TrEMBL record:
This is Ig-like domain-containing protein. Keywords: Disulfide bond, Glycoprotein, Immunoglobulin domain, Signal. It comes from the Eukaryota. Coiled coil: none annotated. Pfam families: Ig_3. It comes from Pleurodeles waltl (Iberian ribbed newt). Residues 13-93 form the Ig-like domain. The lineage of its organism: Eukaryota, Metazoa, Chordata, Craniata, Vertebrata.
Amino acid sequence: MSDPQTLTVTHGPENVKIIPPVSQLLQVGDKLSLSCTVESVPAPQYQWLLNNSDLNRPGNTYTIEKVSLRDNGNYTCVAYNTDTGLSAKASVSIAVYGMNAVPMQPDDALVMGNAWCPTFVSVPQARPRLKSHH
């Protein structure tokens, strides 16, 4: 009788998701924390992009302790399986506003591709509420 053998079936990446999966509205100085989940064997390599530019941050989490206006944009997690040679991605939009700016009404927001891009107006020290508009 021979020794038992283990068979590993490689697959993926599939079902890539960013958590939280919805667009966020943050004030300058707020914390941004994103996590990327994926189904893949073996575990994938990760790449984070901001507006299609590599952020040079490996791993399935991306955190900024204090966001600034330059952190606005579309964040993408790319998962790459070295065994299958396949990749998959998910994206989420992040809007950062300054201390004296808030987004206008949702009807005034711009939609560029799949990204939600709010329009901002200057007002004294108000903190806006994010409203979903589907």
